[in-house]
Amino acid sequence: MDPLEYFSYAPHIFDLILNHLSVDDILSVSLVNSAYYKVTTNSLTFRRRIKLKVTKDLLVCKSQIVEKSDRNYHNLELNLNHRFYQNIFCVLTKFNGLKSLDLKNCLLTTEEFNRIFKILTNLDELKLDDLTFEDVNPDEIKNIENLTKLRHLQMKAIPEILMHPLLIKCKNLKRLSIMQLSRKAPVDEVFKQLAEDSQFKLEQFEICDFGYYNFDQKKFGLHSFLEKSFDTLRVLEFDVWIGIASLQLVFKMPHLEKLRLYELAHADKDIDWNEVTLPCNKKIKHLNLQDVNNHKNLSSTIFKAVPKVEFIEVYALSYEDLCEIGKSCLELVELNAYFLDINDSNGAIFKENLFKNLKRCNISASDDLKQQILSRSEHERSNFENLLLVN
């Protein structure tokens, strides 16, 4: 008598149970018997969390196993090791109800690329990583269809010529990630075009490009692109310097909750951050800063603009940074830093008993600093000092 067998006849309850299991355990449940197999593979949890990973070896040696499978996959990853196999279309046709597709390490033609989306009509998420094209046929790219349901698109190390034709088809896109584009790519011009003719408004946007900061520091195209989603953006992640005007625009966004700013070392060298004022944004709860050490007062300027932030992560913290965070970010709950540039001679930060609401502090303090804190009695230590001793 299997106590779970009753629930196999109540799929919605069974699905709730599966949702509490790990991926490995979900697969194990599907192997109990044929009834369990059917109800598990048809569940919403299975379709949402289980991904079929198709590699070169699977296509060459075991493609029949995939084609005969009666599992209802909604997530598929194709990692083809820079060769496109025609029998991949059989796999795509079998799982034409796919919601998520990862296409990686592939050499193909634009006709084959277009054909993929003629088969897959219900994609919600698409990730393109390291694609190489034998040809570039503009007509094939312009004719790509069935991307109107796409809500999440990630493009990594792909030809920049694909950016505009793809994005212009994504009328309901909510999340966009662009990574590792060529240093020679006219990225800002693409953003300018998209600001003029795209129909989507983003909730989340990430750009991580090792060469983008070499272009015009004013970033007019990016600025216009961000303005288009001004009222809808909730998450922004920049691994590039975006310029003062765009940074000020970001801090005006009414619904922004999470902000990551990397590569700030490449900010304009002539900026006097004492003269820069950022709009105060009380919606930002999560802040991640990196590479600010080349610009004095840059981090302090940013901390002043996020009075309601609850989570801060930075690479290094100075005494001045701690003072500013303690005075400006009164609702801070968690503080993380890889490097703490402070000693007990800066003890005023502790005596003022700042960071009263801080609950977690992941900072590696030096042994000398810890010994100096320990030299004081427990009732003399601040909340921040006690949290430092935990690490």
From TrEMBL:
It comes from the Eukaryota. Gene3D superfamilies: Ribonuclease Inhibitor (3.80.10.10). It comes from Polypedilum vanderplanki. This is F-box domain-containing protein. InterPro entries: LRR_dom_sf.
